[in-house]
Amino acid sequence: MTPASLDTTTTTMAARLSTREHYADLLDKYDTWLFDCDGVLWQGDKLIEGATEVLQLLRHHKKSVLFVTNNATKSRKNYKKKFDSLGVEAHVDEIFGSAFASAVYISSVMKMPKDKKVYVIGMAGLEEELREEGIQYIGGTDPEDNTLGSFSLADWTPDPAVGAVLCGLDTSINYTKLSKAFNYILRNDGCAFLVTNEDSTYPTAEGLLPGAGSVSAPLRYALGRDPIAIGKPKGTMLDCIRAKHDFDPKRTIMVGDRLNTDIEFGKAGGLSTLLVLTGITKESEITGPNASPTVPDYVTNSIGDLRALLS
Ligand SMILES: O=C(O)[C@H](O)[C@H](O)COP(=O)(O)O
Ligand SMILES: [Mg+2]
């Protein structure tokens, strides 16, 4: 029985979870739990308190646990190593990142010809997922592009095989990379402008950093056009999940920390949504006169709150 406070069918307000009964009701209602990572399970490399116990509890109750991250710096295999290093049970086929989704998009949605290449702004994990998908790429971690030197068009010979630019979070961003990506797109109308995700900021344990969306923003501004974004809230990642896992959207909940990616992703996918306040979104964005029009079904302070079920 759903307590009146959790009956989200008739309200436009999120149900604020706080009691053991609230969490027990969630456990009863949902079989598949999709977890965002940054700001939900961890902040940088610091686990959110209670996250491990709650994931164990869900698995104990035979719930399906999947991880859905916009962070394109790591491949699924890299993420498995991160989960292992943090002592959190996770299996590679439960992990979905925007690096993987971008590789799938290029190969299976765009169907980019195999003789074409991607110019990458991004890190090793993104390159790994492109390789695994059989996609040729240049740029990325190539030392020639990872320079603080000035960039001269006169000294540059573009690769005619580049058919797409893909930009993700790159903590070594520089003028050379932006200049090459800009010119590949500017000079060739057929060159796709893709971004792994558009998160404006990236939450770490010590505070916020510019996110992937802020890395690709100079390209958007210089080109005067928007890219095709692949990560949350777009449905590509849910398509990738559907291709590997059966789930009933009505009994599936997306747990996230950002309204314009995680919660919109869940709502667009017909899932229920639980917002946690350990990442990007703050209480003031979901209450009061300036509240966002994106309303999660449920809100709780932290995923660790579900430890109430252990008592
Ligand atoms: O800047 C970024 O790419 C994002 O802040 C970060 O990767 C978000 O990851 P998520 O919260 O989807 O795990
Ligand atoms: Mg997040």
From TrEMBL:
Cofactor note: Divalent metal ions. Mg(2+) is the most effective.
Pfam families the UniProt entry points to: Hydrolase_6 (PF13344), Hydrolase_like (PF13242)
Binding site for substrate: K232
Entry keyword set: Hydrolase, Magnesium, Metal-binding
Signal peptide: none
EC number(s) recorded for this UniProt protein: 3.1.3.41
Record's keyword annotation contains Hydrolase: yes
Protein name: 4-nitrophenylphosphatase
Keyword Magnesium assigned: yes
Species this chain originates from: Trametes coccinea (strain BRFM310)
Enzymatic reactions: 4-nitrophenyl phosphate + H2O = 4-nitrophenol + phosphate + H(+)
GO molecular function: alkaline phosphatase activity; metal ion binding; phosphoglycolate phosphatase activity
Transmembrane segments: none
Active site: D36, D38
Domain of life: Eukaryota
